[in-house]
């Protein structure tokens, strides 16, 4: 235990800290296969997205294979809109696609099952309008639009047995082990995050249930982004948000804490910006975070571009 009264989770598969008794239900989780296909990039009819001043611009960003954007890379500064790192996959059947969205978790293994890259292994890194998967650059060169990718979905239903007030979402046991979780003497679970976002800048996505895709921060005020240091955010950064209740939807609640993940890049659209995917949320004081600038899944999972 440190002098600050915090103990850390050991590395490896155990969820239990020495004498702390933090235990998950991972032994009860169902692990199953879901499948998607590498998607074609798409644009809105007319092609333009609009800046807050009304100026239209045609930009790439969503879906397909991004050869030069991976987790660990910058979230701001792209000549693109909602840039999705790595490979975006979907299923043409609506219900199967929802299963791909709802069952897959961050850190799940992804295996290419058709095409020139058959057998290559990647990692699920986000969920936007498509599921996002990281592969090594040599794999990206061999992937084709339409290639099948099977996800070993594992993590849906994950919970802390002694902290039932913390809702866990989209978190695989692999990610859980990598987060560097800590426990204070008062029982609070502490998650290292790269930065804190004030809830006042959270925008589009508040209308969605928190089991589905993400919530964008509103990045239109560039001076504020620089003042807050938000413009230094990287794809894959872990994020802390106070007074954000993401247990069911995404709403304001005094004292709530949410832990999230930056899954896509910035946007020029009003009310949009980098996408923040919910990982944990609690309203009763059971959850907190501390700032650790290197808290990014690229480093934690050994993928993408590690700082």
Q: Structural class of the helices, strands and pairings?
A: mainly beta
Beta-strand percent range: 25-35%
- Give me the count of strands: 18
Into which percent range does the helicity of residues fall? 10-25%
CATH class division of the largest domain: Mainly Beta
CATH topology of the largest domain: tm1086 (SG structure) fold
The number of helical runs is 5
- Summed over residues and divided by their number, the pLDDT gives a mean of 90
| Shape summary | globular
Protein name: DUF4438 domain-containing protein
InterPro entries: DUF4438_C, DUF4438_N, TM_1086_sf, TM_1086_SG_dom
Pfam families: DUF4438, DUF4438_C
Region (Disordered): 1-20
Provide structural commentary.
It holds the Pfam family DUF4438. This is DUF4438 domain-containing protein. InterPro entries: DUF4438_C, DUF4438_N, TM_1086_sf, TM_1086_SG_dom. By secondary structure, the chain is mostly beta strands. The chain has two domains: 170 residues, 3-layer Sandwich (tm1086 (SG structure) fold); 122 residues, Thrombin, subunit H (Beta Barrel), CATH 2.40.10.170. The protein is 11% helix and 29% strand. It has five helices and 18 strands. Strands 2-5-8-7-6-9 form a six-stranded antiparallel beta barrel. Strands 10, 13, 14, 15, 16 and 17 form a six-stranded mixed beta sheet that branches. It has a four-stranded mixed beta sheet with strand order 1-11-12-18, with no helix packed on it. It starts with 5 loop residues before the first strand and ends in a 6-residue tail after the last helix.
